[in-house]
């Protein structure tokens, strides 16, 4: 570190979301290492974001000499809380202090250098007691969670003019927010607290995890535990997570405690009819939850859940459309969900660009009408020489699936 004089200028840059500053971890794990002067200097700089000022005013507030301040900054730099840059400006220097956030308690304990140094400084017994104070508590598995969710309490109509377009506004985080989907930031915080190093999961894997978590209605903290167990340490970066094992674990858990809308768009249905209520429900809940409701609150079969997973993750059909497709197939196919023509219908809906439950229903209805127009009426067939359909001895699976899909489309909305 280059020494700063009282007349040198300084400027602070906060290089993390200070809303999530873990003061207790900073106090318990860092203070014994860096000392009170460095601890106070860190918080003083944290509030100095903005215009350049002279060190003289800062040191006056801290009641530190230039030498004491220099030692404090060295300690902060050594533990990674501050990075210092300097630029000559005329007869003075400009020091830029870039502040980083402290590691969480679990991250600190997994850092060999920091944890080992602290243990040697305060003793193993006190260090173990310190770590014990920062262990997170989980509710007993014998307890039943009855927490009400945001949509259940407020019953919002999801008017696009109110809800859409609000996600990209910049602002400080760290406040309690209603959950309307899988919170990736919260998930990463939870899994890092379990011991996974920051950046250990690739962005593509994170997207997959978020989709699986939303699909199976798994809360972020529980999902972090599942993912941590599915980590393959020796696998290359980007393939650390065993997705198959993770999906199976989520399907086995299936708590259905969290009621969360999935990606897609609202059908913007505002009437009070039974059909309108059903469409709104399709837009707002996960396919796994929808299947549970269709089965009177019982857990869906694993094969059905894997089908839903393919429709959502592989084919890319938005969850509201998956719900509409499931409802249609169950109604027209004796409550069975054959995989082949469910996937065929899903692919058609994706190509059509359907985003909401109403989109899917309208498309299927329109397809049915087109099929009816193309189907010859009984009067068009010669009564003397009728055409009798034959069934081949060994039907082609693909042709059989296509025929079944066409039949389903023809039967959709018979009364429409």
Which helices and strands appear, and what pairs or packs with what?
Blueprint lengths: L8 E6 L8 H24 L6 E2 H8 L3 H13 L3 E8 L2 E8 L5 H5 L2 H11 L1 H10 L16 H5 L5 H4 L20 H10 L9 H13 L4 H10 L13 H11 L20 H11 L2 H8 L7 H13 L4 H14 L6 H14 L4 H18 L22 H15 L5
Parallel strand pairs: 1-4
Antiparallel strand pairs: 1-2, 3-4
Strand order of the largest sheet: 2-1-4-3
Poorly predicted regions are: 163-180, 255-267, 380-399, 412-416
- Radius of gyration, rounded? 30 Å
Could you spell the SSE succession in H and E letters? EHEHHEEHHHHHHHHHHHHHHHH
What is the helix fraction of residues, given as a range? 40-55%
Structural class: mainly alpha
Q: Total helix count?
A: 19
Overall residue-averaged pLDDT value: 76
What does this structure look like?
With 416 residues, the chain is mainly α. Among the domains are: 9-103, Arc Repressor Mutant, subunit A, CATH 1.10.10; 274-376 and 396-411, no CATH class. It has helices at residues 23-46, 55-62, 66-78, 105-109, 112-122, 124-133, 150-154, 160-163, 184-193, 203-215, 220-229, 243-253, 274-284, 287-294, 302-314, 319-332, 339-352, 357-374, 397-411, and strands spanning 9-14, 53-54, 82-89, 92-99. It has a four-stranded mixed β-sheet. Strand 3 and strand 4 (92-99) form a beta hairpin. It is elongated. The N and C termini lie far apart (78 Å).
